[in-house]
Design goal:
- The structure is a single chain.
- Helix 1 runs antiparallel to helix 2, helix 2 packs antiparallel against helix 3 and helix 3 packs antiparallel against helix 4.
- The protein contains four helices and no strands.
- The chain is mostly helical and about 70 residues long.
């Protein structure tokens, strides 16, 4: 199923925000959430991991990665 235009636009905007705020863990988490909803599992995992690098104590991200990787 092709990604809806609105979801693609949202992901593109979030990628821009991540570039602008590359030291903010939450921007990676939000991008990952949208990517996951859009079926971009591998990209979501990559961004969840980056979020976790910046904030190793984020339990929600830890749990999400555990679900996705197992």
């Amino acid at each position: 199923m092709p990604m809806r235009d609105s979801m693609k636009k949202a992901i593109d905007i979030l990628k821009f925000i991540v570039q602008a705020c590359s030291n903010q863990w939450y921007s990676y988490s939000i991008l990952a959430e949208f990517q996951l909803q859009a079926g971009q599992k591998d990209e979501a995992i990559k961004n969840y991991k980056k979020s976790l690098e910046l904030n190793p104590n984020n339990e929600q991200t830890i749990q999400q990665l555990q679900k996705l990787e197992h």
